[in-house]
Amino acid sequence: MKKVVCFGEIMGRLCPVGYKKIIQANSFEITYAGGEANVAVSLANYGVDSSYVSKIPDNDLGKSVLRTLKSCDVNVDNVVIGGERLGMYYVEKGASQRPSKVIYDRKYSAISEADTSDFDWDSILVDTEWFHFTGITPALSDKCIDITREALKKCKEKGITVSCDLNYRKNLWTNAKAKEVMTELMAYVDVCIGNEEDAEMVLGISADSTDVTAGQINREGYIAVAKQIEEEYGCKTVAITLRESYSASINGWSAMLYKDGESYFSKKYDIQIVDRVGGGDSFVGGLLYTLVSGFEPTKAIEFAVAASCLKHTIEGDFNQVTVSDVEKLMNGDGSGRVQR
Amino acid sequence: MKKVVCFGEIMGRLCPVGYKKIIQANSFEITYAGGEANVAVSLANYGVDSSYVSKIPDNDLGKSVLRTLKSCDVNVDNVVIGGERLGMYYVEKGASQRPSKVIYDRKYSAISEADTSDFDWDSILVDTEWFHFTGITPALSDKCIDITREALKKCKEKGITVSCDLNYRKNLWTNAKAKEVMTELMAYVDVCIGNEEDAEMVLGISADSTDVTAGQINREGYIAVAKQIEEEYGCKTVAITLRESYSASINGWSAMLYKDGESYFSKKYDIQIVDRVGGGDSFVGGLLYTLVSGFEPTKAIEFAVAASCLKHTIEGDFNQVTVSDVEKLMNGDGSGRVQR
Amino acid sequence: MKKVVCFGEIMGRLCPVGYKKIIQANSFEITYAGGEANVAVSLANYGVDSSYVSKIPDNDLGKSVLRTLKSCDVNVDNVVIGGERLGMYYVEKGASQRPSKVIYDRKYSAISEADTSDFDWDSILVDTEWFHFTGITPALSDKCIDITREALKKCKEKGITVSCDLNYRKNLWTNAKAKEVMTELMAYVDVCIGNEEDAEMVLGISADSTDVTAGQINREGYIAVAKQIEEEYGCKTVAITLRESYSASINGWSAMLYKDGESYFSKKYDIQIVDRVGGGDSFVGGLLYTLVSGFEPTKAIEFAVAASCLKHTIEGDFNQVTVSDVEKLMNGDGSGRVQR
Amino acid sequence: MKKVVCFGEIMGRLCPVGYKKIIQANSFEITYAGGEANVAVSLANYGVDSSYVSKIPDNDLGKSVLRTLKSCDVNVDNVVIGGERLGMYYVEKGASQRPSKVIYDRKYSAISEADTSDFDWDSILVDTEWFHFTGITPALSDKCIDITREALKKCKEKGITVSCDLNYRKNLWTNAKAKEVMTELMAYVDVCIGNEEDAEMVLGISADSTDVTAGQINREGYIAVAKQIEEEYGCKTVAITLRESYSASINGWSAMLYKDGESYFSKKYDIQIVDRVGGGDSFVGGLLYTLVSGFEPTKAIEFAVAASCLKHTIEGDFNQVTVSDVEKLMNGDGSGRVQR
Amino acid sequence: MKKVVCFGEIMGRLCPVGYKKIIQANSFEITYAGGEANVAVSLANYGVDSSYVSKIPDNDLGKSVLRTLKSCDVNVDNVVIGGERLGMYYVEKGASQRPSKVIYDRKYSAISEADTSDFDWDSILVDTEWFHFTGITPALSDKCIDITREALKKCKEKGITVSCDLNYRKNLWTNAKAKEVMTELMAYVDVCIGNEEDAEMVLGISADSTDVTAGQINREGYIAVAKQIEEEYGCKTVAITLRESYSASINGWSAMLYKDGESYFSKKYDIQIVDRVGGGDSFVGGLLYTLVSGFEPTKAIEFAVAASCLKHTIEGDFNQVTVSDVEKLMNGDGSGRVQR
Amino acid sequence: MKKVVCFGEIMGRLCPVGYKKIIQANSFEITYAGGEANVAVSLANYGVDSSYVSKIPDNDLGKSVLRTLKSCDVNVDNVVIGGERLGMYYVEKGASQRPSKVIYDRKYSAISEADTSDFDWDSILVDTEWFHFTGITPALSDKCIDITREALKKCKEKGITVSCDLNYRKNLWTNAKAKEVMTELMAYVDVCIGNEEDAEMVLGISADSTDVTAGQINREGYIAVAKQIEEEYGCKTVAITLRESYSASINGWSAMLYKDGESYFSKKYDIQIVDRVGGGDSFVGGLLYTLVSGFEPTKAIEFAVAASCLKHTIEGDFNQVTVSDVEKLMNGDGSGRVQR
User: Fold this and answer.
1) Which residue blocks in chain E are alpha helix, DSSP H?
2) For a FRET experiment, which of A255, B153, D75, E319 has its CA 20 to 30 Å from that of E161?
3) Are the beta carbons of A131 and A284 closer than 8 angstroms?
4) With an 8 Å Cβ cutoff, is F50 touching chain C?
5) What is the pLDDT along chain B (340 residues), one digit of tens a residue?
6) SS3 label, residue C236
7) Do B61 and E26 make contact, defined as CB atoms within 8 angstroms?
8) Sign, Cα dihedral of F199, F204, F210, F213
């Protein structure tokens, strides 16, 4: 089986126990996660040969990153060791009307200060079928833009499929900078994924008259967005997640897959949330699995949405479910009856 | 007051904190529980003279079982000490669309390898008014079938009322074996209790056109099931719990009592679940209390359902509530207002 | 800025982890809280110059009280050190149909045995604009009635606005005693706050035909109650919180502000509760902030209700939110979307 | 087997995790313990028919006391339910040069406010062989002196052996009051137990030239103390524990038994302390077991000291060891090798 | 680099927090460990290509075993998935005079019921340089003896060096059975490792006049034991660990290496123990690393002892140290000064 | 009373529970600490008017810093809010031969990137009697050197006494840079404090023939060092802490005070360590208290050493003791007997 390579930043995630706020916390649970690593773990859980590429510092936090990824069956042979610090983020779990809150402390991280010379893409991409990155990575630094561009060029040369989760992060860069950079990089992207806001914030393409905070969804609008992305950037496949935030505790969750001119809307799940961070990444993980495996579009989008529905019920960023867990839900059993 | 004797297996229950999955767990909370022990504890909580009979090993886990039961006022004078191991089970709490999961590690437990010579039923059943067992016990081993049969015969001789919770466990025995064994043992049973599936799986009696996972309930079907159980096995009293699994987080919960040819349906509670395991046993505990105490059928079924509604809000298998807690809910106060 | 003084009892709050019952608890989380201290903390969080007055013992629990209040920016220069013990209370968190439960162990606390000579109100009230107390304080002891009366008289002399949260506690005094005492003290009160029951229990004024446990609210009735309080006690401002207890897990929450003859009803929030204790105090904290700051009545009541809606999602009695957190919700964003 | 009755106060014990100080604590572990209850539990652990008598309030803390004692096989049929509050104490574990610290919050506890009418000693003492109390109980209140005196008189009438652990508590009463009261009660005592300070503080009898804080022990002095106790109060049996406090982490521990004119010194253990509170009570528990069982004096004192040596290595006040655990140590195996 | 293969049983290890006894425990920390797995992890930590071979069940506990080993860089490609249950053991940490206690619940584990057909040693042993097993494995079952014998025969054929840690477990088999079986298997062993008791219990070879519980060590005796092992079984290399158990908290720790007729005694460490279980395995891990790497005997034994000294200060069975950690201690820095 | 101002960096301190290593940790306890903040807290505990000056970011971690310091009575009016991140450090507690380990993640912290324009020393130093800094602060950045120099110049102008703890941090700067910078800043220092290594590493002044890791102390050597510091830099007061690291668990601890040409050696404590980090700062806190209070040199050094002895027994960097706690130890009671 050919491998899938995910490239990006992995961080320490510090999270107060239960619903404690950061200013109330006496201790933090630590896990290690990040947009692209979350996807790599999902893929490994589904049996895909999954590799992760990044740069992490040579200390016990960096070691813990490696231990975590290896325990999840993600290949880390191409993680570069070096740099000064591991990025960290603090997650404060919201409830009801109180939003979850993420504080990033990722500046000056090893990957954000990495150099193009750190990564030998010819060697990394040997036997690779698919390359995945997100809009977060080029937002980290100008050097990260260069590294990403280099990787994408090599992918093009080698005929490797490229997917990108737009993932706009307003505290990493401006609208304008995001647009400028991502517009260029999109030229290499085959599969484009985003949520309701990303297309607008990153590519300037918007679905009319959808008030996200009010939880309404405009199907036609999303189809139009996907078509436009295809037209402007040549992505034959576009996927958009559709989150209806009733509150921090309960969300509606569905998605649309646009492929070869056709659009497919998944069923919608109303989810009682355990941990929402990483939800989008688990959608990408599920989707890439189906695309690598050649699922039909209707099954593909249902798998991806069911997978990420389950992630919302799991602590931590990683989606710790198997193909059979997802298929059970996807095939209609969301009753939550005890499995003995 | 005459005593109620419950006979079966009690195990260690290991449960990750919060919503962590077993593969994520760094620690497990331990309690000790089991279908019949859960009933014995409910009865003791309601003031019934409650005795538990089983076999547990002579080590610190066995000691912990005794400490737990004694702390709950359950008489353990007839628990036999010996055998090799205490059965264990692992409970992974589900949420929303993710089901709870129970992993059993109960094979070769002391009780499953016990011998008929371990139990002197003449002495155990002195001053006993009621004997309770479940379909789990004979499923443990052929010796357990023999021990159960012996106990039931003694009950018949002594005029002790016998109740049985069918409790089908598909990983302990097959459909066919269950049917063969339970059909024989049912001859001794006065009060038969089950959930929507048990009658079908154990006795081959089914309510037509009820799709449990879809959460529909067919009243007429359940009445027919009860009548048939009465006709075939002579049980004058049959109780069926009716769970509507909207998700792992929210369930509808009600029940039917069939007594002397009449059927009584309880009110239905929509429950935000804290811990669902042991829910059925808490229904049996409530029901046996009302039957031993001579409640009217309508009050009996309402008490049993209200009691088990409360159990779903309590951590662990045991239903840690009092008669007055149950009566408050049964009499209509489910508002959850703070009690100061 | 002139300061607000809150006077009352602060206690240790011992709370089992998660949904464990007290009889199941192996450990208790400890925080320090109390009706008036909760208000003082809210005010400090909103930037008000907030002072707390009480009496606490000279031991490590008393020290912990001071540390807690100081960490929240509440001035404790007028907390008297002495007396025998710190009051304690145990909070058992309810869920679904199981109510939360509070066990008080506050008898013989330092403040309940304090003497009028402990407090030099002339000095305490220097530069004070507002004085707040609740119906709990005079319920503690006859001496506490005297101390409160003395404070209120001084307030009148100095033209300090007085607010009172009626807060009836049936285990501290009888209906009759409450009525007798509070009727007298109400003469000094400018702003009267209560929930649906307080006016009836403490002042004997009731809203007809509102069945609180059934969750119905009778707007006209509450307006009538407020008017009557104004007529009988001269309070130009009356606020009533309107809780609809669907269950221990989900409540409806809104409030009415009656000011200068006009009544203003807030929007209603349906809340998935994290911790309900202290919810009423957080309303008072929000309301006093708006009154001290001269908000319009419609904004005042919306701020107070939004503030206390958020408190229900926060562990512990204290409302750990900022003005901007409240305004975001008040201005319509209750979607709980992640803040990055 | 005849039973042993222990009478006194049992409290909630709140203890920060690890070596946290109370002012640093965010949570407390709760257990339930007290001087005489600790002895009752030791006796039950050794297989003695052990009964505990006290008064505790009718709330969830009182219920937890009963659950705890029952789990340890202590008979609680004569625990009176009533009164206002359960006494509590806070234990801060010391280390090295930092002493452990105990804060009591026991005033107004149910037992301290109990009345002689609460206890029907004729019924309580049926089939009783031995009665144990400590100097703490009469120190609680004048009513407790009366209750104790009544119990002791009944014991004399019935020929029940009486033991008393002097246990001077300077924050409960003065030197003078202790002397006055205990001098009277000692008339009923057959077995007197104390540590190095008690005899001096309570009875005014001192061992010359032993500087306890310097850790020196003067054998002759202790023999003289025991003889004098025998002479003045007629106790044929006197036991004195000899603690050498090198630090809060390491203590030397031994004891002397004086019986029928002969004195027996035990071997000394140097202990790395896990939890020192309850150490003295575990000595009494061990000693009473040997006296009830008719051990030779040399074996008796070695058993009592070995038992309490082990208690210092166990969390909580209760000594959770068996006769065989103690005998193994007493017979020389203190090597701590892993038992598999 | 050629790989080292370790073969044996890995179990779940459940351990109460801190110094709680099992009967006091409300929760257990879980890790996964076992004699040969502990060695495999040590080797991987030192950079050796380390493989582990065993059989584990197909459930979440089995998955957790794999995650753990993979996170430690141990190759698990030859772990067979199947069988009924994962063995478990409970570790109660001792202190001072109270011994640590291990309760095994390993009967009927997947590996103990494995068959010779489960393991294809020709394929497993490809590119293998060293094979390690312990006396525990053949003690599990007769089938395990067969499997072990088969593996050893293949090793001989392929010229693979074989090491064996005698590790006598008295609750798994008798003296006599151990002797019979191990005497046969020793024919294949090149490097024999044991503690003070193993040689006597397993091989019937004893060092005269060493009283282990008294902590004396007889150098000449140990040399004689090693010589005799060489003579009888042809092991050119013999290592014996020398533990002096002053108490459960403090141990003396050293070892002897006998190689090619010469004996080398290491320096002795007095250790304040954090977690002693796995200490012997960490010695083996250190020793095999040095033998595989071709260290001089004096450096080899010092490395192995320093490595295992450090393990005693680390929670869990696994020795989480690096070569440089060990070398620092081995080169004399045991001062424990803070590393910044 | 005039105030003492401490200036430096305060960080978040993340520490695994118990003796877990960082790579084993699933959660970290968080406190907030730093060399100069630790001193400020000690001073506040002793009743000194203590102010802390630093720069911290405007996020929830920064808020937590303020809450912590305010809870400890440290004035934070001159803490500047701004900059990008709060420095963090990870503390892994060592034991026996395994050293504790500190991983710093402090680069780019708000204070390290602060500008001279952030601090208006004229205003900050109003009513200040004493100014304290450490060698860590100028090591953070060149801007920090400038800020420190400016502060020191103002101190000189205003006649404020200046103390400096040399505190060499080899991972922040080189030997050479430290020497160059500190040599200049020492011109402003009145009281110089250091441990055995600092004088050599920072000032190039060494005590001959003292092998610190071997735990020997050369009194004459230290006197010579102090004299030389006085001669070269004009510090009339020099204090040197003398740590004898027997292991990570047990240290000898004493100190020397050199004042006006005389040297005073304290008694030595052998300490069983709970938490060693912050030990040196607690010495400085104790010493500054005595110097500000005008203690005799012999009492001053004994107080400082006793204070810091106690700190080693307390979790976290802060020394949570009172003057009376220290005096009790200083006056000879290190027996650790329980305080009731």
Assistant:
1) 35-45, 60-71, 121-124, 136-140, 142-158, 175-185, 198, 219-233, 279-293, 297-311, 323-330
2) E319
3) no
4) no
5) 689 999 999 999 999 999 999 999 999 999 999 999 999 999 999 999 999 999 999 999 999 999 999 999 999 999 999 999 999 999 999 999 999 999 999 999 999 999 999 999 999 999 999 999 999 999 999 999 999 999 999 999 999 999 999 999 999 999 999 999 999 999 999 999 999 889 999 999 987 655 555 445 688 999 999 999 999 999 999 999 999 999 999 999 999 999 999 999 999 999 999 999 999 999 999 999 999 999 999 999 999 999 999 999 999 999 999 999 999 999 988 888 999 8
6) coil
7) no
8) positive
Q: Which of residues 82-121 of B touch E (CB under 8 A)?
A: 84-86, 88, 90, 92, 101, 103, 105, 107-108
SS3 E190: coil
- For F259-323, the three-class secondary structure string (H helix, E strand, C coil) is ECCEEEECCCEEEECCCCCCHHHHHHHHHHHHHHHCCCHHHHHHHHHHHHHHHCCCCCCCCCCCH
Q: Which residue has the tokens 């109510």?
A: C99
| Record: contact A29-F25, CB cut-off 8 A | no
Cβ neighbours of C335 in A, within 8 Å = 99, 212-213, 215, 245-247
Q: Would you call B23 and A320 a contact, using CB atoms and an 8 Å cutoff?
A: yes
Q: Structure tokens of D42?
A: 């030791």
CA distance D97 to F268: 12
Cα C282 off chain centre by: 7
Total Cβ atoms within 10 A of residue D230: 18
Of the candidates C79, C140, C135, which has an alpha carbon nearest to the alpha carbon of residue C108?
A: C140
Q: Rounded to whole angstroms, how far apart are CA atoms F19 and D316?
A: 21
Cβ atoms < 10 Å from Cβ of C188:
21
The interface predicted TM-score (ipTM) is 0.94
**Set of chain C residues whose Cβ sits within 8 Å of the Cβ of B309:** 96-97
CA D320-D324-D325 angle, 5° bins:
45
E24 → closest Cβ in D315, D329, D339:
D315
D166: left (phi over 0), alpha (psi -120 to 50) or beta: alpha
Q: Euclidean distance between the first and final Cα of chain D, in Å?
A: 34
Contact residues for A24 (Cβ-Cβ < 8 A; gap 6+) = A16, C315, C316, C320
Whether F317 is catalytic: no
Measured between CA atoms, how close is C294 to chain F, in angstroms?
28
D98 contacts on F by Cβ (under 8 Å) = 310, 313-314, 321, 325, 336
Provide the number of CB pairs (under 8 Å) joining chain A to chain F: 69
Out of E281, E317, E325, E333, which one is annotated catalytic? E281
CA distance D327 to chain E (A): 12
**Chain-chain contact of D309 with E250 (C-beta, under 8 angstroms):** no
**Residue B329 main-chain phi, psi, to 5 deg:** -70, -45
B47: β partners: none
Nearest-Cα distance to chain B for A216, in Å, is 22
> What residues contact F172, with CB distance under 8 A and at least 6 apart?
F136, F139, F140
C-alpha to C-alpha distance for F195 and F254, rounded to whole angstroms: 11
> If you count residue pairs, one on A and one on E, with CB atoms under 8 Å apart, how many are there?
12
Asked if the Cβ–Cβ distance from A108 to F105 is below 8 Å, we say no
Q: Looking at this protein, which amino acid is placed at residue E271?
A: I
Q: Which of D15, D97, D172 would you mutate first to test chain F, the one with the most F CBs within 10 A? A: D97
- Cα separation of C222 and A53, whole Å? 64
